[in-house]
Amino acid sequence: MxxxxxxxxxxxxxxxxxxxxxxxxxxxxDEAITMxxxxxxxxxLxxxxxxxxxxxxxxxxxxDEAITMxxxxxxxxxLxxxxxxxxxxxxxxxxxxEDSITMxxxxxxxxxxxxxxxxxxxxxxxxxxxxDEAITMxxxxxxxxxxxxxxxxxxxxxxxxxxxxxxKIISSLKFLNIYFNRINKREI
Length: 188
Fold this sequence. Notes:
The protein has 188 residues and is mainly α. It folds into two domains: 1-78, Tetratricopeptide repeat domain (Serine Threonine Protein Phosphatase 5, Tetratricopeptide repeat), CATH 1.25.40; 97-188, Alpha Horseshoe (Serine Threonine Protein Phosphatase 5, Tetratricopeptide repeat), CATH 1.25.40.10. The chain is 82% helix and 0% strand. Helix 1 (2-8) runs antiparallel to helix 2, helix 2 (13-25) runs parallel beside helix 4 (47-59) and helix 3 (29-42) runs antiparallel to helix 4. The model has no long low-confidence stretch (mean pLDDT 89).
Protein backbone atom coordinates (compact mmCIF):
# COMPACT_ATOMS: atom_id res chain seq x y z
CA MET A 1 0.00 0.00 0.00
CA UNK A 2 2.71 2.51 1.01
CA UNK A 3 4.92 1.50 -1.90
CA UNK A 4 2.04 2.19 -4.26
CA UNK A 5 1.39 5.58 -2.67
CA UNK A 6 5.09 6.45 -3.02
CA UNK A 7 5.00 5.38 -6.68
CA UNK A 8 2.10 7.73 -7.27
CA UNK A 9 3.67 10.65 -5.40
CA UNK A 10 7.33 10.20 -4.54
CA UNK A 11 7.55 13.70 -3.04
CA UNK A 12 5.10 13.13 -0.19
CA UNK A 13 7.03 12.89 3.08
CA UNK A 14 4.01 11.51 4.94
CA UNK A 15 4.01 8.42 2.74
CA UNK A 16 7.65 7.70 3.56
CA UNK A 17 7.06 8.34 7.24
CA UNK A 18 4.05 6.02 7.32
CA UNK A 19 5.95 3.35 5.44
CA UNK A 20 8.81 3.77 7.92
CA UNK A 21 6.42 3.34 10.85
CA UNK A 22 5.08 0.13 9.30
CA UNK A 23 8.60 -1.20 8.87
CA UNK A 24 9.42 -0.14 12.43
CA UNK A 25 6.41 -2.10 13.71
CA UNK A 26 7.79 -5.13 11.87
CA UNK A 27 11.17 -4.65 13.63
CA UNK A 28 12.80 -3.74 10.31
CA UNK A 29 14.65 -0.81 11.79
CA ASP A 30 17.31 -0.35 9.11
CA GLU A 31 14.67 -0.18 6.42
CA ALA A 32 12.56 2.13 8.56
CA ILE A 33 15.53 4.50 8.96
CA THR A 34 15.85 4.68 5.18
CA MET A 35 12.19 5.69 4.90
CA UNK A 36 12.38 8.23 7.73
CA UNK A 37 15.49 9.79 6.21
CA UNK A 38 13.67 10.08 2.89
CA UNK A 39 10.78 11.80 4.66
CA UNK A 40 13.28 14.17 6.30
CA UNK A 41 14.91 14.85 2.96
CA UNK A 42 11.52 15.93 1.56
CA UNK A 43 10.31 17.79 4.67
CA UNK A 44 13.07 18.67 7.10
CA LEU A 45 10.78 20.70 9.34
CA UNK A 46 8.61 17.91 10.72
CA UNK A 47 10.07 16.85 14.09
CA UNK A 48 8.13 13.60 14.19
CA UNK A 49 10.23 12.23 11.32
CA UNK A 50 13.41 12.79 13.33
CA UNK A 51 11.78 11.32 16.42
CA UNK A 52 10.67 8.21 14.52
CA UNK A 53 14.12 7.82 13.02
CA UNK A 54 15.58 8.17 16.52
CA UNK A 55 13.38 5.32 17.75
CA UNK A 56 14.72 3.07 15.02
CA UNK A 57 18.33 3.94 15.83
CA UNK A 58 17.60 3.40 19.53
CA UNK A 59 16.20 -0.07 18.87
CA UNK A 60 19.38 -0.90 16.93
CA UNK A 61 21.41 0.19 19.99
CA UNK A 62 22.81 3.07 17.94
CA UNK A 63 22.26 5.52 20.73
CA ASP A 64 24.51 8.32 19.47
CA GLU A 65 22.59 8.41 16.20
CA ALA A 66 19.31 8.29 18.08
CA ILE A 67 20.38 11.23 20.26
CA THR A 68 21.27 13.24 17.16
CA MET A 69 17.80 12.61 15.76
CA UNK A 70 16.01 13.41 19.02
CA UNK A 71 17.99 16.62 19.43
CA UNK A 72 17.02 17.67 15.92
CA UNK A 73 13.36 17.02 16.79
CA UNK A 74 13.82 19.16 19.93
CA UNK A 75 15.46 21.89 17.87
CA UNK A 76 12.37 22.03 15.66
CA UNK A 77 9.81 21.64 18.46
CA UNK A 78 11.13 22.31 21.93
CA LEU A 79 7.70 21.94 23.51
CA UNK A 80 7.20 18.21 22.98
CA UNK A 81 8.19 16.43 26.21
CA UNK A 82 8.42 13.00 24.59
CA UNK A 83 11.38 14.14 22.48
CA UNK A 84 13.29 15.00 25.67
CA UNK A 85 12.24 11.74 27.30
CA UNK A 86 13.34 9.72 24.27
CA UNK A 87 16.67 11.52 24.16
CA UNK A 88 17.04 10.84 27.89
CA UNK A 89 16.46 7.14 27.29
CA UNK A 90 19.26 6.95 24.72
CA UNK A 91 21.58 8.95 26.98
CA UNK A 92 20.70 6.59 29.83
CA UNK A 93 21.70 3.60 27.70
CA UNK A 94 25.09 5.25 27.14
CA UNK A 95 25.45 5.65 30.93
CA UNK A 96 25.32 9.42 30.53
CA UNK A 97 23.10 9.72 33.56
CA GLU A 98 23.64 13.40 34.33
CA ASP A 99 22.69 14.28 30.74
CA SER A 100 19.69 11.94 30.83
CA ILE A 101 18.49 13.59 34.05
CA THR A 102 18.65 16.97 32.33
CA MET A 103 16.48 15.64 29.51
CA UNK A 104 13.99 13.95 31.83
CA UNK A 105 13.68 17.09 33.97
CA UNK A 106 13.00 19.14 30.84
CA UNK A 107 10.25 16.67 29.89
CA UNK A 108 8.82 17.03 33.41
CA UNK A 109 9.00 20.81 33.14
CA UNK A 110 6.84 20.66 30.01
CA UNK A 111 4.47 17.92 31.21
CA UNK A 112 4.47 17.47 34.96
CA UNK A 113 1.63 14.95 34.85
CA UNK A 114 3.44 12.12 33.06
CA UNK A 115 4.56 9.50 35.56
CA UNK A 116 6.94 7.87 33.08
CA UNK A 117 9.16 10.96 32.99
CA UNK A 118 9.53 10.92 36.79
CA UNK A 119 10.19 7.18 36.79
CA UNK A 120 12.85 7.47 34.09
CA UNK A 121 14.53 10.32 35.93
CA UNK A 122 14.45 8.14 39.05
CA UNK A 123 16.34 5.40 37.19
CA UNK A 124 19.18 7.74 36.33
CA UNK A 125 19.33 9.18 39.83
CA UNK A 126 19.30 5.66 41.27
CA UNK A 127 22.21 4.63 39.05
CA UNK A 128 24.16 7.63 40.36
CA UNK A 129 23.42 6.45 43.93
CA UNK A 130 21.31 9.55 44.52
CA UNK A 131 18.69 7.51 46.33
CA ASP A 132 16.98 10.42 48.11
CA GLU A 133 16.35 12.17 44.80
CA ALA A 134 15.31 8.93 43.09
CA ILE A 135 12.81 8.30 45.88
CA THR A 136 11.31 11.75 45.32
CA MET A 137 10.88 10.98 41.62
CA UNK A 138 9.34 7.56 42.24
CA UNK A 139 6.93 9.01 44.82
CA UNK A 140 5.80 11.59 42.30
CA UNK A 141 5.30 8.86 39.67
CA UNK A 142 3.18 6.89 42.15
CA UNK A 143 1.18 10.01 43.02
CA UNK A 144 0.33 10.46 39.32
CA UNK A 145 -0.21 6.77 38.53
CA UNK A 146 -0.77 4.77 41.72
CA UNK A 147 -1.73 1.61 39.82
CA UNK A 148 1.65 1.02 38.15
CA UNK A 149 3.48 -1.48 40.33
CA UNK A 150 6.83 -0.74 38.64
CA UNK A 151 6.96 2.66 40.32
CA UNK A 152 6.32 1.12 43.74
CA UNK A 153 8.99 -1.56 43.11
CA UNK A 154 11.51 1.12 42.12
CA UNK A 155 10.64 3.12 45.23
CA UNK A 156 11.10 0.06 47.45
CA UNK A 157 14.45 -0.75 45.85
CA UNK A 158 15.64 2.83 46.33
CA UNK A 159 14.50 2.90 49.96
CA UNK A 160 16.34 -0.36 50.61
CA UNK A 161 19.55 0.96 49.07
CA UNK A 162 19.24 4.25 50.92
CA UNK A 163 18.98 2.40 54.23
CA UNK A 164 21.94 0.14 53.34
CA UNK A 165 23.94 3.19 52.30
CA UNK A 166 23.19 4.96 55.58
CA UNK A 167 24.08 1.79 57.52
CA LYS A 168 27.45 1.66 55.75
CA ILE A 169 28.11 5.30 56.60
CA ILE A 170 27.21 4.72 60.25
CA SER A 171 29.48 1.65 60.38
CA SER A 172 32.32 3.63 58.83
CA LEU A 173 31.85 6.48 61.29
CA LYS A 174 31.84 4.03 64.22
CA PHE A 175 35.02 2.44 62.92
CA LEU A 176 36.69 5.83 62.54
CA ASN A 177 35.60 6.84 66.02
CA ILE A 178 37.11 3.68 67.53
CA TYR A 179 40.25 4.08 65.44
CA PHE A 180 40.83 7.71 66.48
CA ASN A 181 40.06 6.92 70.14
CA ARG A 182 42.79 4.26 70.08
CA ILE A 183 45.25 6.64 68.46
CA ASN A 184 44.45 9.32 71.03
CA LYS A 185 45.02 6.84 73.91
CA ARG A 186 48.45 5.94 72.51
CA GLU A 187 49.51 9.56 72.36
CA ILE A 188 48.86 10.14 76.05
